[in-house]
Every structure is written in structure tokens, then in C-alpha cells.
Amino acid sequence: MRLDAITLFPDFLRQCADVGVVGRARERGLLQLETWNPRDYATGKYRRVDDRPFGGGPGMLMLIDPLRACIDAARAAAAGVDAEPAPLIYLSPQGERLTQATVRRLATMPRLLLLCGRYEGIDERLIAREVHKEISIGDYVLSGGELAAAVLLDAIGRLQEGALNDADSAAQDSFEDGLLDCPHYTRSDTEGTAGIPDVLLSGDHAAIRRWRRQQSLGRTWLRRPDLLARAQLDNDDRALLDAFRHEWLASQAKNES
Ligand code: ADE
């Protein structure tokens, strides 16, 4: 998959793409990142990329023309990589909130263009004409879209086939089935096995699977009831969750007495 990022801070995104799983995906040729700096397409003595908004008010907006030239150059550079023009995603707090389902869908595309805003944002006409989708990574305001693009790059990169060493680990992630992940434990010289649920040391793989599913359901109930309300649960799930609730409420009552 190829990602083209339009950003005033290309070094930041390049560094993000060099480390960890995403770095490995790039080394393995599973993911390619190209960056495009609007400043390289700005004209005039000062190569300005921003200006004041019409109507007044605080802050500056990114200028349309350097951005459009940048987008055109990015598109032309990989023309023919895919039949359809690659979708342009603008990272902005006004966008649709990013979810794992969206990440999964985007990760299957051959190519994406990411547009990182700075200052107070981008001229609305450019958004209307060029942007296919606006994506937000959460209800808070960052000083630019680069961190959000890095989040997307990471989430998409790790899903490229062959990027993760253990093929199962993506399937077990939080959110893959609409639920939070279960707790995990590993060896410790200082802690020994204290505090580790017995079932995980039992070697009974069916019981371990059930326990993990129950913890996943229980954690989602406790921490993200909004996710649980949307999750598809079968009868086994409901029975596991009922048992979890029962135990949890009993332990709360005990702690209070
Ligand atoms: N740019 C500034 N804030 C952002 C956010 N929350 N998500 C995506 N892009 C942003």
C-alpha cells in the first residue's frame, strides 16, 4: 500500500514511519510513505503557505494554491498505480471519528492521500473540491494534522498482510470484534505467578478461551458500555457476561461491607 502525506512537517511523519511495526512493514515492502510539502509549491519571495481568513477573526488559514499544487503533484507521481484516483483524507477535528472498522477498510486500499492541516485549517473550497473524507482521531484539538496522520499510518500499517509477526495478534486486538481486549500476563522474576488467574496457568485451552472472552465482555461492560450496546452477542456471550456481572457486583458489595 502507498500513502502520500501532504504536510508542512514531513520529517515528523517520516520518523514515525521508521520505527516499530510500521518501520518493519516498510522494510518488507508492504507499505510505502511519500511526503509532499506545500512550502515547496508556494510562490513569491517568502513562499507563504498561510493567510488571514476573510471576515476577520483570529488565526491563519492554509492557502489553497500551494496545497492544490501539492495534491496534483502527489497524484501525478503515482498515476496509474490504481485505476481510480486515490481518496484524499483530510485529518481534522471536524471529521468522522476514527474507528477500527474504518482503519480496516482503509487498510485494504492500494493508495491513500493524507492531508495534514495547520493553523486554523484549510479554505473550505479546497475541502469541498478535493477531499473525499474528513477524519478526526478524537474530540480534542491538535496543533496540526500530523499526529493524526501518524495515528492512521500506524493503525493501517500494522494491518498490512505480513506486517505483524504473529498473524493472530491483530485478530485479538481490542475493537476487532467491537469489544475491549482481555487482560494479559507474562513471566516476572520479581512477581512470580502471584496475581495471575489460575485458569491461565491451567493449560486448559478451552477454559482459557472462555475466560478471555468473559474478561473482554466484562471489561467492555465496565469501561465502554457504549461499545457493548452495539456489539453482537450470542447466548454464550450473554451467559458469560451475566456471570461476570454477578461476580463483580458481589465483590463490590463485599468491599463496601
Ligand atoms: N487536527 C487537529 N485536531 C485533530 C483531531 N482531533 N483529529 C484529526 N486531525 C486533527
Secondary-structure blueprint of this entry?
Blueprint: E1 2-6, H1 10-16, H2 20-27, E2 32-36, E3 50-51, E4 61-62, H3 64-77, E5 88-97, H4 100-107, E6 111-116, H5 124-130, E7 133-136, H6 146-157, H7 198-201, H8 205-223, H9 225-230, H10 235-256
Parallel strand pairs: 1-2, 1-6, 5-6, 5-7
Antiparallel strand pairs: 3-4
The structure holds adenine.
Adenine (ADE) binds at residues 91-93, 136-138, 140-142, 145, 148.
CATH superfamily of the largest domain: SPOUT methyltransferase, trefoil knot domain
Mean pLDDT: 94
* Biggest sheet record: 5 strands, parallel
Helix and strand content put the structural class at alpha/beta
Question: Would you identify the regions where 5 or more consecutive residues have pLDDT less than 50?
Answer: none
Count helical runs: 10
Number of domains: 2
Bound ligands: adenine
Describe this structure in words.
This protein has helices at 10-16, 20-27, 64-77, 100-107, 124-130, 146-157, 198-201, 205-223, 225-230, 235-256; strands spanning 2-6, 32-36, 50-51, 61-62, 88-97, 111-116, 133-136. Helix 4 (100-107) packs across helix 6 (146-157) and helix 8 (205-223) packs across helix 10. It is built from ten helices and seven strands. It is α/β, with parallel strands linked by helices and 257 residues long. The strands form two sheets. Strands 2-1-6-5-7 form a five-stranded parallel beta sheet, with helices on both faces. Adenine binds at residues 91-93, 136-138, 140-142, 145, 148.
